[in-house]
Amino acid sequence: MSLLELRAVDKIFGGLHAVRGVSFAVEKGAIFGLIGPNGAGKTTLFNVITGVYTPEHGQILFQGKNIAGLKPALIAERGVARTFQNIRIFRTMTVVENVMVAGHHLHKASIPAAMLRTRGYERDEQALRKRAHELLEVLGLAELADEVAGSLPYGSQRRLEIARGLMLSPQLLLLDEPAAGMNSQEARTLNDQIRFLRDQLGLTVILVEHNMAVVMNVCETIHVVDHGETIAQGTPAEIKVHPKVLAAYLGEEPAETEASA
Amino acid sequence: MRALIRVVIATAVLLVIYGLQFGVEAGFTQYVQRIILLAGINVILAVGLNLINGTTGQFSIGHAGFMAVGAYAAAFIGVQLAGPVHGTLGPGPLADAIIFNLALLAGALFAGISGLIVGMPSLRLRGDYLAVVTLGFGEIIRILFNNATFLGSATGYFGDSPSGLPEYTNFFWVFAWVTVIVLLIHNLTFSQTGRSLTAIREDEIAAEAMATPSTRLKVTAFAISAASAGIAGGLFAHMQSGVRPEDFRFEKSIDMIVMIIVGGLGSISGAILGGIFVAVSLELMRDLQQYRLVLYALLLIVIMIVRPQGLLGTRELHHLLRRKKAEKPPAPSEST
C-alpha cells in the first residue's frame, strides 16, 4: 500500500479546471518531486491534499483511508505536515513558540489545567519545549530559538516552517518551494536536510520546486503537471529528456518536437 | 508542598487586599472609592476582552451585551438565593459572601453560555463576521432587557427590597476577583492554548495546517472572555444596587475597546492600564457629557497615527522589566 495515493482528482474554481484527473502514488520513504510550469496546479494539489480545498471528484488515500474533504486540522493530525509557498510563519511569536504551536499531541493538558498551572501541565509544557529545541537543532536554528520569527532571514524562515511541520510527528511532509529565495549554498544544505529527514526521521517527502538543481538532485521520482493535467512521471534522468516536459517548459508545440526528434 | 505554598500565597494576597480595603475606606472619599471600584471592574472587562480581541485577533464590538447578561443574571439569582441562604445560615457576612459569589458565578455562567451561542456560528467563519454579530447581539440584549417585565423593563432591576439590590461590591471583592481573573487569563495566554490563539491571529490557515482546532479554540476563548465580562457585570450590578438597560449601551462596548487599544492590543498589562485609564478619564470628562465620545474618537485617531500598537504593543510589563534587568551589567552588590 502506498502512503499517499491520488485517484483521478479534480479541482474546479468556477470556470477554471485547476486540477484535472490527476493520479499518482507516493511510496513510504520516497522523495517525490512535483514540478510543472507556473500555474500548472502544483500548489492547488498541495491544498487539496492538506484539506484547504475539497476536490470535486476523486479520492485521496492516506495510509489507505480517504482524506478528501476532511478539515485541515484533522489531516494534519493524521500525519500530513506542510510548508507554504508564501511563507506563513507566526511572525510576532518567537522561533521556538512557532514550533511549539504544532505540538498539540504532546500537550494533553486541558484549559483549566493550563489556567491553574497544574503539575501535569508543566510537565507537558517542558516536554514540548524540549522537543521543539531538538527540532530546531535538526534544522540548524537552535541559536535563533528566542528570536522573533518575523525578523529572521528568508532562508531561515523556510527552515522554521519545516521544523514546525516536523513537530506534528508527521508521516508525510509536503514542501512547497522550500528553496525559493535561498542562495546556492543554502539550497545545497537544504538537499542534505531533506535527505536527513527521510533517512534519519523516516519521513516521506513530496516537493514542489522550481529550482531544478534541487529537484533533480534529491528526488527519486518526479511527477510533472501542466494546465492541471499529468504530462509525465519518471526518474530525474527520464524527466530531463521527456519531450512533453521539454515542450511544457520551453513552450514548443509537442507535435513539432516529436516530428523533429 | 506545591499546593500548600499556593494556598499560603493566595491567603497572603487576600489578606493584603483585605488590609488595603481599610486603608481605602479610611483614606478616600466615597466618590474616589467609587472610581477605584470602577477601575477594578474595568480591568476585568479589559483583560477579558483582550483575550479575544487582542490575543486571538477576533474583534468583538458588543461586549457590553455580555456584561449586561452577567449583571442581570447575578442580580436576579442573588435575590433568589438570599432567602434560602439566609434561612439556613442566618444573616451575616458569611451568608452575604456566599450569596454574592454564587451570584457572580451565575452571572459568569450565563454570560459564558451566551458567548457560546453567539460565537459558535459566527466564529466558524474567518474575518469580520464576529464584529457584525456582536454589534447586533449587544443591541438585541439591551432591547430584550428593556422589555423584560420580570426584570423591571426600562426602569431596571432592583430586586425585591425597596432599597434596591444589596451593595455587596466593595474593594475586597472587586480586587479579589481582579486578581483571580488576571491570573487565570494570564496563565491561559502564556500556555499552549494561548500560543495556539496567537497563531490563529497571526495566520489561521497555517495554524490549521499545524493541527490547531481553530474554531473550537476561538469559541472557547470567546466564551471565557464573555464569562469574565459577566463577572464584571455582576460586580457592577451590586455596586450601584441595581441594573438598568441603559448602563449597557453601545458606548459601553466602545469604552471597552478604548481600554484595550490604549494599552496595546494583545497585552494583559496594557489592558490593565487601559481599564484604569478609562475609569479615570470618564470621571474627568463627566462634565462634557456626550462629547466624551468625540474625545475618545480623537484619542483613537491620535493613537493610530502616533502609536498604532498602543502603549505596550503586544508586550507585557514584566517581560520588559526582565529584559531591562538582563541588559544591565551585573551590579557589584547583588546582596538584595
Poorly predicted tracts of residues of chain B: 329-336
Shape of chain A: globular
Measured distance between first and last alpha carbons of chain B: 26 Å
pLDDT averaged over residues of chain A: 90
Share of helix of chain B, binned? over 70%
Q: Mind sketching the topology for me?
A:
The complex is a heterodimer of chains A (261) and B (336).
Chain A: E1 4-13, E2 16-26, E3 31-35, H1 42-49, E4 57-62, E5 65-66, H2 72-78, E6 80-82, H3 95-101, H4 111-116, H5 119-138, H6 154-166, E7 172-176, H7 184-201, E8 204-208, H8 212-218, E9 221-226, E10 229-234, H9 236-241, H10 243-250, H11 254-260
Helix pairs in contact in A: 3-5, 3-6, 5-6
Chain B: H1 2-27, H2 30-55, H3 63-89, H4 93-122, H5 129-147, H6 171-189, H7 192-202, H8 204-209, H9 214-237, H10 250-263, H11 268-284, H12 292-306, H13 317-327
Helix pairs in contact in B: 1-6, 2-6, 2-9, 2-10, 2-11, 3-4, 3-5, 3-9, 4-9, 7-9, 10-11, 10-12
Describe the structure.
- The complex is a heterodimer of chains A (261) and B (336).
- Chain A is of the alpha/beta class.
- Chain A folds into 2 domains: 171 residues, 3-Layer(aba) Sandwich (Rossmann fold); 77 residues, no CATH class.
- Chain A is 41% helix and 23% strand.
- Chain A is globular and about 65 Å long.
- Chain B is mainly α and 336 residues long.
- Chain B has a domain of 208 residues.
- Helices cover 73% and strands 0% of the residues of chain B.
- Chain B has 13 helices and no strands.
- Classes of the chains: A alpha/beta (261), B mainly alpha (336).
- At the A-B interface, helix 2, helix 3, helix 4 and helix 5 of A face helix 6, helix 7, helix 8 and helix 9 of B.
Which key terms come to mind for this protein?
A: 261 residues, alpha/beta, 2 domains, six-stranded mixed sheet, four-stranded antiparallel sheet, 11 helices, globular, disordered C terminus, B: mainly alpha
